Amino acid sequence: MSEKQLILVVDDDPDLVEAVSMKLESLEYRVAKAYDGEEAMEKIKEEKPALVILDVMMPRKNGWEACDEIKNNDDLKDIIIVMLTAVADSVKTTSYTHHDGKTTLADDYIAKPIDLDKLMEIVQDHCK
Amino acid sequence: MTEQVKINGIRLNKNYAQVTHAYTDRQNQSCVPLYQALASNGINLVSMSLSTIDNKSFVSGTIASKHFKQVSCQNEYWNCHTNVCTISIYPHHYRLQPLGVLLYLLGRQKVPFQCLISSNAMLTFVVAQTDCDAVIDILSKNFDLPESHVPFEQKENEELTQFLKKKYPETRATYVEKRIKTYGITLESDLHLWSYLFSFDQLAEYGQEIQSRKDKKDKFFFVSAVMATPAQTHLFLVTKKSPGIPAPQACAAELISFHGPHFGDRHSIISRALNCLSEKSIRVLQTGCTGASIGIILPEGKGKEAKRALKDVFEIP
Question: Taking CA B100 as the corner, what is the angle to CA B218 and CA B203, rounded to the nearest 5 degrees?
Fold first, then answer.
């Protein structure tokens, strides 16, 4: 890692945001936090993070909508998105899966309950 | 109190009931603890505060209103309040300042709260739903919040839930695990549990004292508070150093804290934690759970044994 990259953690559960943020900070990433989809979009436009960890079910704007907005915006589409989803098997039936290659909007996903170490591996893989 | 303390958000959950069970040790031998009774009925405790350090112990838990009828007639010693809501501010980063400001504001505005509990990120308290708008207004005006912040109200909307379930592969967590996954169990030693019992009229004064500890090294590890009577507040504060406010009761303590996925949405988790400690005859001084976090205060020297016992029930990565 040449310089500290900025990761945006978005979830409506503040305890989870704190847990993920602490883990990322221990790996020397810079961390920004948002607690709903609207706030996430504002921070993404302002701070242009390298990667966004994005929950699905959130108030004001859900994760799928935020993901669409990012990936359909020329200025933001290169930001890596890792979705947090409660039902991993179902994700494979949607267009939002890393298994589907070209049709993928999110770059990766991780199932809830999250394995924090696995999430860190995913982040590190994408932020090489 | 002129300086505004920075926080990131306020969270609101409505349509809850508060069930409190106060008992003496003698009564305790003949009744099932509140958390066990709720767990056996599959009722989720959204938040819970437990104390055993006085002659009269108590457990106070928040449950969804829809379960109120199920529990209201179960035990004559249970005291039930309907139409309450939980309000959380976050993150506290274990600073005494947001805690002090919150207590000061609740005291100054004379807003009685059923209980207050800390989690990893949040300070959560329970108030009557009729006070909810006024409290949100006070907090919004007195804490430094991001411009874009909107107090988040988590609503149960069956129609919307069904729609989202069809459209998006996401749902609320209701699963039960044989061994409950956690993100790790932390043990903190060399702590002190300070117990303050004071008139509700003094709450603002205590809040002011606490928030005046501006040294960044002064932090709390755990906090809970309850209305012992309609006129009395009982505050329990766990810190490393003395918070500088003389306490009539204090003892050396250890804190076990852990959190896990969907803890706040699932029943029986706190019950399983406390049962496994009880089976090993490990005394618990205080417990608070809210959101996805559980904090258990133990007598000095009991932490390691308790952590070992919890491993029977909880998975540690």
Answer: 130
